[in-house]
Design brief:
alpha+beta; Nuclear transport factor 2 family protein; 4 helices; signal
């Protein structure tokens, strides 16, 4: 698990650009993903992801073995949108954000202290979209 001090230091670095239009738009897409998942909102999830093109890859343990699994986001969004909203308290934090050429970004995201996501976003037209999500389970 990432240490709290390391997370705080990285958040301080990424928040140095708070209020920047590009960083704010990227953060909005990331939180559409996180909050949309909790709300079971297909609208927010589709706003966050380039659903028909995006993929999710997880490095997981299965019977003690490390396995890599891949999901199509179009199917995943349909699954995440089912059921009642999550009522348990959830916290999501941007750990770091790197933007290149104002068209490509990589965001490390702490999802509820359970998962660490590496999100790759690209600017599609005027919108920032998550193109891929790679995650690990925090231990």
């Amino acid at each position: 698990m990432l240490r709290a001090a390391a997370i705080s230091a990285l958040l301080a670095i990424s928040s140095a650009h708070a209020g920047d239009k590009t960083n704010d738009a990227i953060a909005a897409a990331v939180f559409d993903y996180f909050d949309g998942q909790g709300e079971r909102s297909a609208e927010r999830l589709n706003r966050a992801f380039s659903a028909e093109h995006a993929r999710m890859i997880g490095v997981l343990k299965d019977d003690g073995e490390t396995v890599v699994r891949t999901w199509e986001m179009e199917d995943t969004i349909a699954n995440w949108s089912k059921g009642d909203p999550i009522t348990d308290e959830r916290t999501g934090k941007i750990v770091s954000m790197n933007v290149v050429d104002d068209r490509l970004a990589v965001v490390l995201f702490d999802s509820n202290g359970r998962f660490l996501d590496a999100l790759t976003l690209a600017k599609v037209g005027e919108d920032w979209k998550i193109m891929s999500k790679v995650f690990i389970v925090q231990e």
